[in-house]
Amino acid sequence: MANKFINPLPPVVGVVPGQTATLDIPIGPRYHVLWFEIKGRKATTPTLDEVVGDIRVKLNGKPARIHTAVQLDALNKLMGPEFAAQSVAEAVGADTRVTWWLPVFLAEPWRKQYAETEAMAWPTSWPNGEKVQTFQVELDIANTSGVTEQSVKAFAETDNVLGQVDKDGKPLFFVSKWNRVAAPYTAAGDLYITTLPKREIYQQISLFTTTDKITQAKVKVDGVIVRDATKAQNDATLVARGMNSAGLSNYRFDLVFDYDDNPRSALLMQFGSVGVQDFQVIPTLDGAAATTKVVTVLYQTYGRPD
Prior knowledge:
Layout: E1 5-8, E2 20-24, E3 30-42, E4 52-59, E5 62-68, H1 69-79, E6 86-92, E7 95-105, H2 114-119, E8 135-141, E9 148-159, E10 175-184, E11 189-190, E12 201-208, E13 214-221, E14 224-230, H3 231-240, E15 252-256, E16 267-268, E17 270-271, E18 274-275, E19 279-285, E20 294-303
Antiparallel strand pairs: 1-9, 2-8, 3-7, 3-9, 4-5, 4-8, 6-7, 10-20, 11-19, 12-15, 12-16, 12-20, 13-14, 13-19, 17-18
């Protein structure tokens, strides 16, 4: 157990519509939450995606998390209403200015065991003197007609706990990574997604659609069916485990493998020395009416930074 500090981060540089803003995060502390204070003004109330698009969290120059601001907020909200972005709207002349406080949870406060939450925090330094080389966030600033006064500030929740080392004194560094791929489809029915990486440990796979809905999903690992549920059945199991019913969406199917809050319940891609050979995620679509027929697959895995 360690004291938590809440302090500003350095300025976010390059908050210009249509460009990528950057935040260089100081090395040394262990990070629990990165907070972004995002503002935008418009004649009608601006939405979050009209101000910020993609957010990329990078370790040593490589993305460890990729998602839009809206996707991040949606999956945070699934874990509980208290984890959603907070916002305040104020009238400015004939316009409305909105301020959002959007968290990137590195530690996972929704876990029921304190030790499990703490274990998910991201260290940046170790007892042997090793440190993360760079820790950076990139934010794509939206270029939306009518939106003005876009700004982004950042602060963080940290502590001074050093990372753990193995028996040889080498750093142990595992993080929850978020990656995203597009799975195109052409018709209603089963969509076979077979190209997800067969490595590390899968915590969650969220399947986003727009016009078309996913009515059922299966997950097969080397011929073993580990999930086969309708949308209603799957949602019921998540709510029964304490997830937020208001955070569910008709246009998102959430496959949460560690839904019992035990990280060891996540889906392994290796058993002893034997790696998984066949990994299939099979959503069933009720139609193909969407103009852009793509299932956006946002998958969360636990492993070493890339």
